[in-house]
């Protein structure tokens, strides 16, 4: 926050390259307009989740040369609704060892926090609703983007508490992984947004959209955009970053002990969060509800007025949703060490370096009058080239086992809870391994005496 407080006032005073942008005007709104917008957002999110589930299954099926859902409804569109009804009427089981209050409260926290983000997302410009001119946005305030990050951070408590309150090993491991994942990737995500605040001169979502009239920020801020896209996949626990619910090793992670509607709430929160991060990427980097060029230049921007912008906004959001599905159908899950290395050794250092570069360019530009776009494009090229070169540098190989000495034998159950061996440690051999080793030694001892007899029999035959 110290960087923000130091840079943002100067950006606003200096114009940030775009001048002081106009914020959305909510002065005409009344209670019924607020209620209508809130209900519309909830209906939009719930409907979009049903479509997203069908969309994901259909796209992944096509990637794997399968038909996908095609029985319930036209093109299988009612399959998601059937799955929701199945979860609704399924038996609801509560684990005896669970902390009952927290066990039930955890999925509610996850869903409630996921529904808050769209309150500050602009769907379009001001339109007339029942004779009242109002923006297609529920509300906005000067620190709306920080509000989005806060909602995402609090929502993770649902996952952490759900895994802890289940009273089981696998959910606990999933919740601990989720904590590490949030710390790692929310730092990179927040840093990737700082450069947008500096250039736009505001943290208000409507003002950031207004600042992208001439150019969308993903072009001059390409490294920040790439970092945000990678971080948003990790933030939503999606492949290849779905370690908190890795079904291959943790059954279903933090959701293992949940069933019926409590499981459905976690499932719902995951897909709503996908829509949330897609909408934030659209708003901050892809011009929000603004039409793409050259459509935006037709008839003095007629497609940026009225209800047309809602179409452009939804198209951009679903472009990111397709990216989520594409990654899931193409990339394998990372190992945990790879996951942490990407977060702490690549994303965070690059994001910090990029923020410093943008802040320096912005400060120098205010005094020298340099062209913002050209300078940022050059810096973006240098940063991307440096990242690519870093992947070409070979890693330092581990020392041979002989140089490290014999590994230390330890008891995994010494503390009363099973723990995996650390580097340089080895588990004691099991009884089965000891029997196999004994059998191998006996076979090796008998081999010299049996060999001549076998050779004689073969030649005699």
Automatic annotation (TrEMBL):
Q: Does the keyword Membrane apply?
A: yes
The entry's localization annotation reads: Cell membrane; Membrane
Q: Which GO terms describe its molecular function?
A: NADH dehydrogenase activity; oxidoreductase activity, acting on NAD(P)H, quinone or similar compound as acceptor; quinone binding
Which residue ranges does the record annotate as region Disordered?
399-461
Give the principal location in a single coarse category.
membrane
Q: Name one GO biological process term.
A: aerobic respiration
Instruction: Return the PANTHER family for the record.
Output: NADH DEHYDROGENASE SUBUNIT 1, NADH-UBIQUINONE OXIDOREDUCTASE CHAIN 1
Task: Summarize subunit and interaction data from the UniProt record for this chain.
Answer: NDH-1 is composed of 14 different subunits. Subunits NuoA, H, J, K, L, M, N constitute the membrane sector of the complex.
Q: What name appears for this protein in its UniProt entry?
A: NADH-quinone oxidoreductase subunit H
Q: Which organism is it from?
A: Cellulomonas cellasea DSM 20118
Taxonomic classification, please?
Bacteria, Bacillati, Actinomycetota, Actinomycetes, Micrococcales
């Amino acid at each position: 926050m110290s960087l923000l407080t130091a840079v943002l006032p100067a950006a606003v005073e200096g114009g940030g390259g775009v001048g002081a942008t106009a914020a959305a005007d909510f002065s005409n709104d009344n209670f019924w307009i607020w209620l209508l917008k809130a209900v519309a957002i909830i209906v939009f999110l719930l409907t979009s989740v049903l479509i997203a589930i069908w969309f994901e299954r259909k796209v992944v099926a096509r990637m794997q040369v399968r038909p996908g859902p095609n029985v319930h409804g036209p093109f299988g569109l009612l399959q998601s609704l059937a799955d929701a009804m199945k979860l609704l009427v399924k038996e609801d089981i509560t684990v005896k060892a669970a902390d009952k209050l927290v066990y039930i409260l955890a999925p509610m926290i996850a869903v409630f926090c996921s529904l808050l983000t769209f309150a500050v997302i602009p769907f379009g410009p001001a339109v007339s609703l029942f004779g009242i001119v109002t923006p297609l946005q529920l509300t906005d305030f000067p620190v709306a983007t920080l509000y989005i990050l806060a909602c995402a951070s609090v929502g993770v408590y649902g996952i952490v508490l759900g895994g802890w309150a289940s009273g089981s090993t696998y959910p606990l491991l999933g919740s601990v992984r989720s904590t590490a994942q949030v710390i790692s990737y929310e730092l990179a995500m927040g840093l990737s947004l700082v450069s947008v605040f500096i250039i736009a001169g505001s943290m208000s979502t409507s003002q950031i959209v207004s600042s992208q009239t001439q150019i969308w920020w993903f072009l001059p801020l390409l490294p920040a955009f790439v970092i945000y896209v990678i971080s948003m996949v990790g933030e939503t626990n999606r492949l290849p970053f779905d370690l908190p619910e890795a079904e291959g090793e943790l059954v279903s992670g933090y959701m293992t002990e949940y069933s019926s509607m409590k499981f459905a709430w976690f499932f719902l929160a995951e897909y709503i969060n996908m829509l949330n991060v897609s909408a934030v990427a659209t708003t901050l980097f892809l011009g929000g509800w603004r039409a793409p060029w050259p459509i935006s230049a037709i008839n003095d921007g007629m497609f940026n007025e009225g209800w047309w912008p809602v179409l452009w906004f939804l198209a951009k959001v679903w472009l990111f949703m397709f990216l989520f599905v594409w990654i899931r159908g193409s990339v394998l899950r990372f190992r945990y060490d790879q996951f942490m290395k990407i977060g702490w050794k690549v994303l965070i250092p690059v994001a910090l370096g990029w923020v410093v570069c943008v802040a320096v360019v912005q400060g120098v530009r205010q005094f020298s009058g340099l062209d913002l776009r050209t300078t940022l494009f050059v810096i973006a090229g240098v940063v991307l080239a440096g990242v690519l070169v870093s992947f070409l540098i070979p890693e330092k190989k581990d020392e041979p086992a002989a140089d490290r000495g014999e590994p230390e034998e330890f008891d995994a159950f010494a503390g009363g809870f099973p723990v995996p061996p650390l580097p340089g440690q080895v588990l004691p051999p099991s009884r089965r391994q000891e029997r196999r080793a004994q059998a191998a030694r006996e076979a090796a001892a008998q081999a010299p005496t049996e060999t001549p007899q076998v050779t004689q029999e073969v030649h005699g035959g």
